[in-house]
Amino acid sequence: MNAKDLSLRLQKAAEYVPQGARLADIGSDHAYLPVALMLQNKISYGIAGEVVIGPYKSAQKQVAKNGLENKIDVRLADGLEAVELADEISAITICGMGGVLIRDILQRGKEKNRLSGKERLILQPNVGERQLRQWLFVENYTIVAEAIIAENNKIYELIVAEKALTTPEYSAKELFFGPQLMQEKNPIFIEKWQHKLAKSERILASLHQSDQDVAEKIEAVTEEIAWIKEVLADAGK
Ligand code: SAM
């Protein structure tokens, strides 16, 4: 394989990996990301961490096929347990999972002392971006970059974060939309939130039909709808 084989989504994640990084890719089905980055000479060392035996074996095969066994370690482990502080990892990619799962992997990694705090985190949640940003905020990370891309009729967000001494006071709205994405409001962002607005309005209508006690849920969805309308109106949509 070469870098061209990466999906647009993984290419975007790759862009944020600093030159010469020691990279840990967690949830590294096929080890595509570390292998492509090593073939580009963009990383100096890689770990491909996988918790499931099938993808772990695929990752091993991919590394061997490219003759990179001395440069990329494939480790069967849960989350950041694939990493030791002695590995001196400088960038961690966690892509293609739910934001809550990514958050839980980071939280367990923190509790098990697998994060030095010096790593750049490059995260690509499929859903649950808000919960992930919330964790980053509470843990004193600054969101240094964000991206939103469309591929195969899906929209993906990327969040790049680094630990800082002082972090911005992100508002609830910024955690919901992404602080940089909501400033930029590019066409893919608009498309995502137009779609979400229609979905939330359908959810609200069905909640109003419910005979359960859904008052809190109605309040939360109503607030989300108001925020989305506000952001879209700011963009002239
Ligand atoms: N990162 C690749 C990508 O973005 O294309 C693969 C994404 S795939 C949908 C998610 C992978 O994460 C699966 O191979 C799964 O086995 C792995 N995974 C899920 N939970 C994990 C965990 N706690 N630790 C390590 N790997 C995990």
TrEMBL record:
A Pfam cross-reference name: TrmK
InterPro entries, sorted: SAM-dependent_MTases_sf, TrmK
Superkingdom as given in the UniProt entry: Bacteria
This protein's name: tRNA (Adenine(22)-N(1))-methyltransferase TrmK
Originating species: Enterococcus pseudoavium
